[in-house]
Amino acid sequence: MNLDRFRDSTSGRVIQIGQGEIAYSAFVPNVLPPTLNLDAELVRTLSEADRALGELAGLGRAIPNPHLLIGPFIRREAVLSSRIEGTQTDIAGLYAYEAGQLALPGVKSPPSELDAREVLNYVRAMEYGLERITALPISLRFIRELHARLMEGVRGERATPGEFRRTQNWIGRPGCTLTDADFVPPPVNEMQDALDAFEKYLHSSNAYPPLVRLALIHYQFEVIHPFLDGNGRIGRLLISLLLVNWNLVPSALLYLSAFFEKHRQDYYALLLAVSARGAWRDWVLFFLRGVAEQARDANARAKRLQDLQLEWRKRLTKARASALLLRLMDSLFESPVLTIPEAQRRLGISQYNNARRAVEKLIKAEILQRVGESAYGKTFAAGEILKAIGEGHE
User: Fold this and answer.
1) Cis omega before residue 33 (within 30°)?
2) By three-state DSSP, how is residue 117 classified?
3) pTM, two decimal places
4) Is residue 274 part of a domain?
């Protein structure tokens, strides 16, 4: 680490480990919370974020079946959060992988199976976390359980899934060492103390507003870097889970990875600036702007999906569709790619031909399109849903 960069930090201290040629420096963060002056710009930005988040929460409470949106939103987050770490999979590729094939014809290049599995693990970790917070507080144990599911059976599996690191890690360009890394998190003993203080802060009352606390928590987790791999993804998972756990949103509708991925260089630079010179204000401003932008984006996407569902219901009702067909149509909002055996499963029927006829009716109504073959037969997709979910900003 460049010691001159961290010499005047007010957010932590630099310590030296070892002697001679093997000596290196590491950063140990101060416990939360820092002193932060909520000036006029911060208060205004916080107000905008709160208002946008409140509108999204209101929409989530008004939607009759918000779970129809949760699946697509989680998958979009999984794709973008994993992409920040270098995994190359798009939403269509993820859905295709879940449907039993790695590519949808005419939809970009297929991801590698390893990339698709990593992204799907993110989905599974989020789904597990949303279920687990109903019984277990967000704690160090909870975080380890998330990590175990995130890293199961993928490239980071050797990085002790579900366990905090027992050795030193570091952050920097490929091939760098401890001595020339850009940043070295706290050594194991100091890491344990930092994690204990981090957990206490999660459960403490605090004068700062919840969204400001979230910004502080995300920084603190990333700077502690308690796992050998997967720290960034776990840190971003925690943001969404805490939003639900603190009842800021009624369900998992807000994610920040799209904003962080869009502003990736600023994201990393601002986190580092907190460690280097205590630039909390700049980081919190950035984080709050992300909340506001992504809340508005999620609101627009949710309304678009709602409108699409209503339009399709009218179209099918006019054609005197059965309740079974309407149920299959609704299921597309949870997962817009399916095969006929998958349609059987969703409908809970044993007759293949009945499921095939239902799929054919959705094709005739221009809701489904055939997109290829998989190990399970023909594959179909609701292209308008995939387009509405998208990966960019509105």
Assistant:
1) yes
2) helix
3) 0.91
4) yes
